[in-house]
Specification:
mainly beta; Immunoglobulin-like; 4-stranded mixed beta sheet; repeat; transmembrane; calcium ion binding; transmembrane helix; calcium
Length: about 700
């Protein structure tokens, strides 16, 4: 007989597949007697017979997919053998599919690629999921996770297999979403429905559709001047939404061929990283800011580029000292310049800025000058007090400029200002009174004295000339006696001087400078004529003609000591030259007379003899000069009997002559003058001390 049963694949062992006794039409109790046996055709025993109950039981759990695979039908064939009589029955057991397998994709993750410039409608095939179950338990449909850009399309192959495809519905932008992550779900038709999923990763392939972009496109950097070479200025922030070569950016300076940027000499640019560094010292005073243009270019085809603009502003540091410029200097300046007279125009500049460029000018406070601000960065140097060239002929003026930076920087400049002389000082003699001495009878042109005057002025104002003034103090103009060298002040005699005529001269000397107007002063030189022994003694008594003799009678009985007569002589010279001495010239015979050496008295030295006749005496009067001069007189003395002469009466001395009176007056004047001059000199010395 042919028996046919069915059993779901998910039943547990012991499950009753069918009632063999009933279906074979035999008694249950006979089954054991007939030795019922079950023989499997496949070699593997999946079933067993319960002889007591006469039923076919499941011996092990069945797995339709393992037994039959993808076959639409799955049947197990058995043979039943009974003896007494021997019978063979065929049993066919259909293994019914149960939805015990979920759909499964070959790979848990599917990676797809699509260019970002793909047109909508582009399809991306997907791998089919597998489900070991059959029939309605097999894959029924596919589902795709929601997406703005993609949708799912299912096509049915000729063999009935459903083929899922992803369809592009909206244009892509890799720069916005470079990767799309989707979930594909396969659903079977079982109850309950089972599903399997796969992750779908769609990479959007880049197209060079985006230029490099600077962020920000215009930027500013503050940088101190004089930073070390190689200092990082900035690193450009450039993004290119493309990738690969399309997003690989190279940097370069953007310059004009006609006017290359100066900044290229001062800054370097790393073409790969976009770092801008200094490559030369920066100087705020040369340029306070630099505009740098940078080109950012990708390596796509065609290449695209963007532009970055960087402004580098330098921060000034106090690295420059002030500079002093002497615009004009009025040198020399007159010493009588009024206060406020402009001496110099001074400019100052400092290349720094702000407080670093604010400059103050200073000069020494003790100088008679001050600084007056004319306008910004310009000053006038003016006099602040009287000038006196005689005290200071010039000034070394140091102008110091100090800025307001931190630390401060300073510089100074020194210039010499000469003070021009003004004739404001009269010449000044070393002494207002001087005394000179000169021998009488000196030759004309003899140097008497040199006066000396000084003038603290200079140039023509100090060029002196000397002259002698005729002040009328002498009876004869003084210029007839003396002259003066107008250049050196030496006084010379014009003619020989006679002490006996003029014993002292007052020579007024004027010194005058060559200034305009000229200034002068005077001094008096007292010239004392020194006596020379140029006059022989003059015998005034007895007065006898030259070549004649004076006769004097004496008593014959005169005793020794008797005053015979007295010789009176004078000498126009003075001093030693006028000291007179009297003596008798030697004679062949001894004379009984003697002459008093100092008084000139002739006295009888011894008594006269009666037989003696007259005596002839030669009396010599000699002065004390060098060489000594002398005069003599011849006296004839005759003795007379009973002659008694009153010598005092007979001695007829002449009266003083006017010349003698004048001589006495001159001597008095000389003494008074010398006394006055001495007093004045002592007074001047005391005043100076």
């Amino acid at each position: 007989a042919q028996l046919h049963y069915s059993v779901p694949e998910d039943r547990e062992p012991g499950f009753s597949v069918g009632d063999l006794a009933k279906d074979l039409g035999v008694e249950v109790r006979s089954l054991a007697a007939r030795n019922l046996r079950l023989v499997s055709e496949g070699g593997q025993q999946h079933f067993q017979v319960d002889l007591a109950a006469g039923v076919l039981l499941l011996d092990s759990r069945l797995d339709r997919e393992a037994l039959c695979g993808q076959s639409p039908t799955c049947s197990l064939h058995l043979q039943l053998v009974m003896e007494n009589p021997l019978q063979l029955h065929r049993v066919e057991v259909d293994v019914l599919d149960v939805n015990d397998n979920a759909p499964q994709f070959p790979k848990p993750e599917v990676v797809l690629e699509i260019t970002e410039v793909a047109n909508p409608g582009t399809r991306l095939p997907l791998e089919v999921a597998e489900d070991p179950d059959m029939g309605s338990n097999s894959i029924s449909t596919y589902e795709l996770s929601p997406s703005k850009h993609f949708a799912l399309s299912i096509n049915v192959r000729g063999d009935g297999v459903k083929m899922p495809e992803i369809v592009l519905e909206k244009a892509l932008d890799r720069e916005k979403v470079p990767v799309h992550h989707l979930t594909l779900t396969a659903l079977d038709g079982g109850n309950p429905v089972k599903s399997g999923t796969a992750r779908v990763t769609i990479h959007v392939l880049d197209a060079n559709d985006n230029p490099p972009v600077c962020d920000p496109p215009v930027s500013k950097v503050l940088l101190e001047e004089n930073v070390p070479v190689g200092t990082l200025v900035t690193k450009l922030n450039v993004t290119d939404l493309d990738e690969g070569p399309n997003g690989d950016v190279e940097y370069s300076f953007k310059t004009s061929n006609n006017a290359p940027g100066k900044f290229t000499k001062l800054f370097s640019l790393d073409a790969r990283t976009g770092e801008i560094r200094t490559k030369a010292p920066l100087d705020y005073e040369e340029s306070s800011a630099y505009e740098i243009a940078v080109r950012a270019r990708d390596k796509g085809s065609p290449a695209m580029e963007g532009h970055c603009h960087l402004r580098v502003e330098l921060i000034d540091i106090n690295d420059n000292s002030p500079e002093i410029v002497l615009t004009s200097v009025s040198s020399p300046v007159q010493e009588d310049a009024a206060p406020g007279t402009v001496i110099a125009l001074i400019g100052v500049k400092d290349s720094d800025s702000g407080d670093n460029g604010q400059v103050r000018l200073q000069i020494a406070k003790e100088l008679p000058f001050k600084l007056v601000s004319s306008f910004k960065e310009h000053f006038s140097l003016v006099t602040s007090g009287p000038l006196d060239r005689e005290k200071a002929s010039g000034y070394n003026i140091t102008v110091r400029a100090v800025d307001s930076g931190s630390p401060q920087r300073a510089t100074q400049k020194t210039f010499y200002l000469r003070i021009a002389d003004v004739n404001d000082n009269a010449p000044n003699f070393s002494s207002p009174f001087d005394t000179a001495h000169i021998q009488e009878n000196s030759l004309p042109g003899t140097s008497v004295f040199s006066v000396s005057a000084s003038d603290p002025d200079e140039g023509n104002n100090a060029k002196l000339s000397y002259s002698i003034l005729d002040n009328g103090m002498q009876d004869v103009p003084i210029s007839t006696y003396f002259r003066i060298d107008q250049d050196n002040g030496t006084i010379y005699t014009v003619r020989a001087l006679d002490y006996e005529q003029d014993k002292v001269f007052q020579v007024p000397v004027e010194v005058k400078d060559a200034g305009s107007p000229a200034l002068s002063s005077t001094a008096v030189v007292h010239v004392f004529v020194m006596d020379e022994n140029d006059n022989a003694p003059s015998i005034v008594y007895p007065s006898v003609p030259k070549g004649s003799a004076f006769h004097q009678a004496i008593p014959a009985l005169a005793e020794p000591g008797y005053l015979v007569t007295k010789i009176v002589a004078v000498d126009a010279d003075s001093g030693h030259n006028a000291w007179l001495s009297y003596q008798l010239q030697e004679s062949a015979e001894a004379l009984p007379f003697q002459v008093e050496r100092r008084t000139g008295e002739i006295r009888l030295a011894q008594a006269l003899r009666e037989s003696e006749d007259s005596h002839r005496l030669v009396v010599e009067v000699r002065d004390n000069g060098m060489p000594s001069l002398s005069s003599s007189v011849v006296i004839v003395i005759s003795p007379e009997e009973n002659s008694m002469q009153d010598f005092s009466k007979s001695l007829d001395l002449p009266q003083s002559s006017p010349e003698d009176t004048n001589l006495t007056l001159y001597l008095i004047i000389s003494l008074v003058s010398i006394s006055l001059v001495s007093c004045v000199m002592f007074g001047l010395v005391a005043a100076r001390c």
